[in-house]
Hints:
About 35% of the residues lie in helices and about 20% in strands. A hairpin with a 2-residue loop joins strand 3 (about 50-55) and strand 4 (about 55-60). The termini are far apart. By secondary structure, it is an alpha+beta fold. The chain has helices spanning about 25-40, 60-65, 95-119; strands at about 1-10, 10-15, 50-55, 55-60. It is elongated and about 65 Å long.
Amino acid sequence: MRILQLDLGGHRIEFHPYVTVLRGLDDDLRAKLIDALAAVSAGRPSVDGLVEAHGVVLDLTDATLELLDLPGAGETGFDIIVRREQLPGATSAGGGGRGQIERARAEAADRLARAEADA
């Protein structure tokens, strides 16, 4: 099964077949999206949307997930969400990415200086 789209309040999020990168989500919308994806993986849709299974597009409903033999509410599901803190090299919350940005900026400035010197 593949999630094609989720409707989160006034926002429709459509997913690419292979990789979807979402940017510019506020904290509230991001939390709603994570909750919606986790709910689908547990077999209990919390928002409207579309899924595809074996080339057939279906509405995201309890009946659809039951038809696809996903575990229902109360059964043991699995978590499909990879969270920031689970990624390799993750640091504690609160500015962990700033050091990476500064290192990348310094490396870029160094490469630029070498390129200018070579020119």
